[in-house]
Design brief:
The complex is a heterodimer of chains A (391) and B (301).
Chain A: H1 3-13, E1 15-22, H2 29-48, E2 56-63, H3 68-81, E3 86-88, H4 93-105, E4 109-112, E5 129-131, H5 136-149, E6 154-160, H6 163-176, E7 182-189, H7 197-206, E8 210-214, H8 218-228, E9 238-241, H9 248-257, E10 266-268, H10 277-288, H11 294-313, H12 318-326, E11 330-332, E12 335-337, E13 356-362, E14 365-372
Parallel strand pairs in A: 1-2, 1-3, 3-4, 4-5, 6-7, 6-8, 8-9, 9-10
Antiparallel strand pairs in A: 10-13, 11-12, 13-14
Helix pairs in contact in A: 2-11, 3-4, 5-6, 8-9, 11-12
Chain B: H1 8-40, H2 47-63, H3 69-91, H4 102-127, E1 141-144, E2 148-151, H5 152-174, H6 176-186, H7 197-219, H8 231-244, H9 249-269, H10 274-288
Helix pairs in contact in B: 1-5, 1-7, 1-8, 1-9, 2-3, 2-4, 2-7, 2-8, 3-7, 5-6, 5-7, 6-7, 8-9, 9-10
Classes of the chains: A alpha/beta (391), B mainly alpha (301).
Amino acid sequence: MTTTSMASATSAAAVIKIGLITPLSGIYAPDGTQVQQGAQIAVDQLNAAGGVLGEQIQLIPQDEGTTTAQTVNAAQILVSQDKVNFMIGPYFSGDVEATLPVTTANKIVQILTVSSLDSLMVPPQNQYLFRVTLPDSGYATMAIAWLGMVHAKTFVYEAEDYGYAHEIGSFLTNESASAGLTMLSADYFPDTTTDYSSAINKIASLAPDGIVVVMEGTNGIDFQKQFAANPAVNKIPIFHLETLLILPTNAESINAAVPGGVNNVFVGPISTITNETAAFQQLFFQKYGITASHYAMDGYDGVMILANAVNKAGTTDPDAVATALSSTNYTGPGGHVVFLNNHNPTVGPGYLTGTIYQIQLTNNEIHYEIVWPSTYANATAVNPATGQPYP
Amino acid sequence: MWTVSASAFTGIYLSLVSGISYGLIISLLAGGLSLIYGVMNNVNTAHGAFYMLGGFLTFFALSALHLPIVVSIVFAFVAAFALGLVFLYGLIPKKMWVSSDPDSQNIVMILFLALAQVLQQGAFIVYGGGSLAIPAILFGYASLPGGLFISYQTAISVAISILCYISLFLFLRNTKIGKAIRAFSQDRELEAMGVRVSTIALMSFGLGVALASLSGALLSSVYAINAGTGWTELVIAFVIVTFGGIGSISGSFLGGLIYGIIYSITQYYLPAYSFVIALVLIYIVLVTKPTGILGEIIERA
């Protein structure tokens, strides 16, 4: 063997490979790209500090694409061809499920930074699966916390007709009674829906104290525009979980169509604020010129949690790393992560909570005020019906 | 005045009113698609993209030209008509403008699909992925019996949709080019009698996409429009056109109305199945009358 080829072999061996499956094309590409960008920042920081166990980290991204078949193919390439040690993703829960035969057969530790389906985290398939983002049960916890904040006794649940939204609805159904709440209806709408006038009329006839909406795409904007234009309902407190309304451009599109149409609307991104969040957002903006979403923060946290576990295990052996991951106690820009026995993160104050904002209009300018959790709240929630803070 | 209760009657009443308004609004989009197919024998798979373009043209007129909202909507209609002519001239070989040859029709369909992608990517590059901020023509709402409210923008959109259909009927019946369009759609051999097919095709395509654009312009303050908008609307327009009778303008009007009513009633009672049930009912009608409820010839307009 020549010196060059020996060096090359040494170099090849001195790399820990992390595969990343995330949407890099199609309508989810902006969010999927943020996962990659956040993960890359973590990799760069680790490598600049000498790597992990003295080895450099290499991030190998694959496009999740628009079909499950494409995702499975991406997983096979990462495992068989690139021979990755670990994996971040995939992004969608259905795709995670589809890749499990490939990843479990090869003992690939998988960190989920976007997928939220609780039902994935069951033995034996969760042996190498760890989630660092809020699961669907956490979404339901946020909704229940919000309903308490607005003193609701009754509510309706309006959601897109996707598996995760049904899972959130099931959690809400199960938990609402013990929280002293009555769910008047749970309606799911196909993704072809643009006109919600009939659904909004139904809400008017049910007269709930609060409305929980799970529509992550432009359907949430459609819904809010029509909701805000209808005086039979538009003073009822409304909470959009994980919504595009967190972006001022989209909130402005509603406000232009219906003046005041976003005022006092509650929005709940699933990102949790910590003392690390602001610094990460600044770094991310400097590097990429855009605002970091929770996708980027969870991507960053996923790599860091994995690196910490490898350091702790002292090896890249998947069983040793999985054991080390189980005792994770990590705080990053996306939250404080401590895994439960099923490898979901702990949800609740001090861990992962999500954040609830209320949109306020001042001189027709849109502001997002943090109203929950109390640790990071900078405003008190305002009752849309009275314009006064809730007692 | 009645009071709203959760009775079955209330549900049907509420969703019936919603369905009529939604159906009348969306039938404007379908009418353009039907006109183009009825004359050109080509499916405009870029029709949804022209709906999206209507929103963006309105936004451009508002934000860049600083025109009032009503003038901006008119601008979207006229500009889409002009762009339609340019795209037809620039993209589709003239011999394929009007054709019953399946190979030619397939090529045109794919070219229109490509045009839709280009329009959407263009909108994304220029304006990003956010939803457009477009004001309503008139803010506020009207109160209907039963505690039902309808926004002025929706009511205006319904009125404009009806007005457009009336205008289209008058145009097709009373103008020289309109009569030529009707005559040509009835008898393709008229080319030999001196009627210029290219003029008829241009006028039909321009009008068809202008109606789609107008629909997008009007609805951009009711629904969300961004660079990705258009595919769902294309599917809905196809459903309505097929249901009403391919090529029949009045069929599109009636088809849209019925689709809207079925859709809204099912959305009230079985929201998850609203689109599927509407499709199943329409399928049942088509099984019994394959040409749709009002046949397939444009002269019935």
